[in-house]
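Journal club prep — side note

Before the paper discussion, L.F. wants everyone to see what a predicted structure for a comparable chain looks like in C-alpha cell form. Sequence:
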Amino acid sequence: MSIESVPFITLNRFENGFKENFLTGVEGLFDKTQFVGGPIVSELEKKLSEKSGAKYVIGCANGTDAIQLALRAVGVDKNDSVLVPDMTFWATFESVVNVGADPITVDVNRDTCHWDLETFKEAVDKFKPKAAIMVHLYGWASPDTMAIRSYAKENNVLLIEDGAQCFGTTVDGESILGTALISTTSFYPAKVLGASGDAGAVFTNDEGLANTVRTLGNHGRTSHYGHGLVGWNSRIGSYESLFLSHSLDHIDERLKSRKAAVNFYAENLKDLPLKVVTSSDNVEENGYCAVAMIDPDLRDALMESLKKANIGFGTIYPGAMSKQPAADKYLKNKIDNGNADYVSKAVINLPCFAYITTSELEYVVTKVKEHFNA
C-alpha cells in the first residue's frame, strides 16, 4: 500500500497487548477504588527512579506544576530574579511568574538552540539571579550543560532543569534527570514518555528537596489535617500512573524508533537548503523532535509543499519568550542577541513519533527533495 500522507505526530501506535494490559489494570484500580494515590503511584515513582538514576521522583499533576514545585522547593520567592531561556515553551516563563518571581530571558546559541556557557556567565554576572531554569529542548541538551551546572553552583545560583522534552537524554554519558540538583518533566501525551492525559514529575537526589516537593504538591500536608506549608493539589492520578508504568516497560524500543527516524532524516536530507539539526557529540538525544533549520525566507514555501503532500509538520517554537504579548508586563530584563528570534523563524519540525515506518520516512524525504528540485 502506497503512502499518501504522514501525520506530524500520532498517539495511537502501541505495542501488541499494551491496550489490553492497561485496561486490565484499570479494572483492578476500579475494583479496589484506588483513584487517588495508592500502590500504583509508588510503583511508578520507583520505576522512574530506576530508569532515570534519580534517587527521588515525585509524581505531580502536570509538567508546569513540576517546574513550580521545583522553584518553590529550592526557595525561589516573591521578587527573586530567575533566568530562563528565550527559546522555550511558555510554561517555563509563566512558572516563574506564578511563584511571584521575576523572569529574565537569556538568549540561546544559534547552532545548538540552547544556552551556551559564555552567555550564561554573562547573565549571571550581570543580573545576580537567585535561580535559573535550564531547558533541555527538542530532546537534546546544551553541550555545556555540565559547565553551566558548575558555574551556577560556584555563584550560588539555584539551577532548576526543565526536562519536559528530555526523558532518556544523557550528557557526557550521564542522565540529565538523574544528576541535576532538581529537574522536572512532563508526561503530556505527545512526549516520548507520555500519559493518557496530563501528568508530570520532579527528580532530585536531595532528600530535603524531595520531601518539600511532595509536601507542596499535597496541600502542604504534614498530617492529614495538618499543614506545614501552603501548597496546592498537584497529585498524579492513579490511572495516569498505571498508563505510564506500562509505557516505561516499552520506553527503550520507543526511543530507539524515534532516534532512528531522526537519523534517517539526517542521512537522507543532506546537501539541501534544509539542514537537519542533531545533538552535539557529547549529548545522547531521545528522538523527541526531528528539527531542521531553513532560511526564514524559504520556510513558507516548504510548508506549503508539505501541506499539499499531506505531511504534518511543526514549528517548535514560533516565537521567543521575550516577544510574547504577555511577557512585557513581567519581564525584568533580558539578553537578546537575536538568536531565539531567528531560530523561531527558521525552525521546522518533520514527522517524528514512536514506530513511524520506513515507508513514511521515505515519503517525507521524497517530497522534501521534490520541493527543492522542482
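L.F.'s comment for the group: The domain at 251-373 is CATH 3.90.1150.10 (Aspartate Aminotransferase, domain 1). Keep this in mind when we get to the figures.
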